[in-house]
Amino acid sequence: MITVIGNLKGGCGKSTITFNLAIWLARLNQRVVAFDLDPQATLSDVNEVRREESGDPELTIYRPDSDPGKVFREHAEDEILVDVGASNLWAMRQAIASAQRILVPVPPSQADVWSTQRFLNMVKEATMRVEVPPQVLLFVNRADTHPGLKESDETDEALHMLPDVQVLPCRIGQRTAYRRSFSEGLAVFELSERSKASDEFFSLTKLLYPELAGDSSKKKKAPKEGKKSAKISKTG
Ligand SMILES: Nc1ncnc2c1ncn2[C@@H]1O[C@H](COP(=O)(O)OP(=O)(O)O)[C@@H](O)[C@H]1O
Ligand SMILES: [Mg+2]
């Protein structure tokens, strides 16, 4: 299945979510390939850190110079995750037209709701001639964790008003674990499997991959001996 992780504004968490999903799938022994179609190349950068730190499992990340259509065909049976950014609109449209679903992280602000609306218009245009249009799944990312702040609820309400989309009943909070794990080339649940950040991320995986999420404890890869497992036990 091809899942595009997209939105127009930078900083909404596209690369973060793509990276975490890719590792989660790989740890369940799923064949997963990830595309970094954003010239900002955050996904490639974080994977470089992961490689330097001997992160296991390793991820395969394709860059725009590989022919996406060809790789999509070669990996038709695999889980394909595509991180797209607005600085390469051509690649973004191509990926959207090939996808079965579009996952849209939305930070809690009016500006992000506006840019999400623009992104959804682009999705409509890009899939006008597609026989089976992709599912469009929105969720609030970087939600306020302070109970007194209402922006996340308001954003959620605004997303529910948008036509032809599903708003996922899960929310990922603004958690320092995302920044910390990213800088070490790790997924949040590799940093610590029992944290609010991990729980929220697992809620997202349950909605996206219900058939895998329930089974995660059985199929999970054993951690590799050495540097990375030491790091996990130190921080976890
Ligand atoms: N839920 C979150 N909590 C805390 N920080 C986050 C969260 N999601 C993303 N970030 C951070 O926000 C920044 C931008 O995220 P990134 O995934 O690069 O966004 P995008 O790919 O949409 O431009 C990164 O520093 C990332 O670690
Ligand atoms: Mg990015």
From TrEMBL:
Residues 214-236 are annotated as: Disordered. CDD domains: ParAB_family. InterPro entries: CobQ/CobB/MinD/ParA_Nub-bd_dom, DNA_Partitioning_ATPase, P-loop_NTPase. It comes from Magnetococcus marinus (strain ATCC BAA-1437 / JCM 17883 / MC-1). PANTHER family: COBYRINIC ACID AC-DIAMIDE SYNTHASE, P-LOOP CONTAINING NUCLEOSIDE TRIPHOSPHATE HYDROLASE. Residues 4-186 form the CobQ/CobB/MinD/ParA nucleotide binding domain. This is Plasmid segregation oscillating ATPase ParF. Pfam families: CbiA (PF01656). It comes from the Bacteria. Signal peptide: none annotated.
